[in-house]
Amino acid sequence: MDLEFVRKQFPALDKEFVFMDNAGGSQVLSRVANKITDYLINSNVQLGASYKVSVEAGEKLINATDMVADYINASDSREVVIGPSSTMLFRILSISLSHQWKEGDEVIVSNSDHEANVSCWTDLEDKGIVIKIWKINPQTFEFEIEDLKALFSDRTNLVAMVHTSNVLGTINPIEEICSIVHKAGALFCVDGVAYAPHRLVDVQKWNVDFYVFSWYKVYGPHLAVMFGKLHLLQNMKGINHYFIKDDDVPYKFQPGNYNFELTYSLTGITDYLNAFYEHHYPDYPLKNNREKYQKCFELISIHEEKLSAVLLSYLNTNSKIRVIGKTDADYKKRVPTISFVHQDLKSSDIVLQVDKFNIGIRFGDFYAKKLIGDLDLNDKDGVVRVSLAHYNSLDEVNDLIKALKSILVD
User: Rounded to an integer, what distance in angstroms lies between the CA atom of residue 307 and that of residue 313?
Assistant: First the structure.
């Protein structure tokens, strides 16, 4: 991967600062920022009017939604629900879907998830919905499939879990889990927020029923997307005005509509990936966009594995450090979101000292509160989290290690 080419696409990287809190929010592409400006200057009108500018604005947003559908491999653009945040989209989904449920029906959540895909379901206990929790093995930090199967009953309606933990960085085998969930007669809802910045999303391949992630973690604006299988969305009660028809998908899940300029700017992400492909593979032209994106993410994964390997190598050799998650860098098993705790120091103490080096990392529970609690890490102020992206360099990782070595004495 040509890192110089990549870094030129992100204006914020010109600063004398190292961004390693990317799981909290990535830096934005110049293409995305320019498209936001372009829309506001040239297309800032209400949609649905007969005049030319409104028609053109509508076409831009149709094209953007079609792009998102292609990017995640949805079979129909109506399966794409754009919203302000993943948390809000999960909440809308839980409200809409639960209208079909009865008291005593069950939902399984995991203890590894961000609360966005937990609280929206656990709050349904007030309506008599029974919540069960699938917990990771605290020694291996892995989910055990047999533990999930033991939670199923004939009242299980839905399983909600994370594709990649925003603390552990582990990539869960959601295609395999989805098959098991469907055999049990339940729906499968996946939080892809920590996965989408590092790998290409493919909702049809995985056969998930619902999949949600945030674009501001994927080099874009503060916006999110929810995929839902069309027949499920059509049969759900919406939350929009009473006169919005049941078959008006996705609008019935978008009260007040969606943000136009930010949605249009999402095309800057795929423009970047197309440019990334053409730069790296000029002699191998492909017409299929998803094949291009897959080749891009293969290069991204390899680069990120190299970064992870260097950082994990250092962390694994310090006897007072415990990596919370997989200790190897294999990109097939993890993304470059790496968490650790120190035997003697609180996580907050470490991060506050790293701040002085103009390197942005973070400590805390990252809203994965059940996980941090179950791992008994609250007294440590949670974990130290270093979350890398493909625009990070080996020099930056080595600078972080140098800073840590000055703070953490083995």
Answer: 10
Question: Is 32-269 in the same CATH topology as 3-28+288-407?
Answer: no
CATH dotted code for 3-28+288-407: 3.90.1150.10
Residue 76's DSSP bridge partners are none
Give the distance from CA 103 to its chain's centroid. 31
Measured distance CA(260)–CA(56) in Å, rounded: 12
CA 191 to mean position of chain CA atoms: 7
Q: Dihedrals φ, ψ of 364, to 5°?
A: 135, -165
Please say whether the beta carbons of 379 and 290 come within 8 A: no
User: Is residue 174 within 8 Å of residue 117, measured between CB atoms?
Assistant: no
Give residue limits of the domains in the chain: 3-28+288-407, 32-269
Angle, alpha carbons 259-263-269 (nearest 5°) = 150
In the block, tokens 């069960």 appear at 132
> DSSP labels for 184-245?
TT-EEEEE-TTTTTTS---HHHHT-SEEEEEGGGTTS-S-EEEEE-HHHHHHS---S-TTS-
The one-digit pLDDT tens for each residue of the chain (410 residues) are: 999 999 999 999 999 999 999 999 999 999 999 999 999 999 999 999 999 999 999 999 999 999 999 999 999 999 999 999 999 999 999 999 999 999 999 999 999 999 999 999 999 999 999 999 999 999 999 999 999 999 999 999 999 999 999 999 999 999 999 999 999 999 999 999 999 999 999 999 999 999 999 999 999 999 999 999 999 999 999 999 999 988 899 999 999 999 999 999 999 999 999 999 999 999 998 889 999 999 999 999 999 999 999 999 999 999 999 999 999 999 999 999 999 999 999 999 999 999 999 999 999 999 999 999 999 999 999 999 999 999 999 999 999 999 999 998 76
**Is pTM beyond 0.85 here?**
yes
End-to-end CA distance of the chain: give it in Å, rounded. 34
| Fold assignment, 32-269 | Aspartate Aminotransferase; domain 2 (3.40.640)
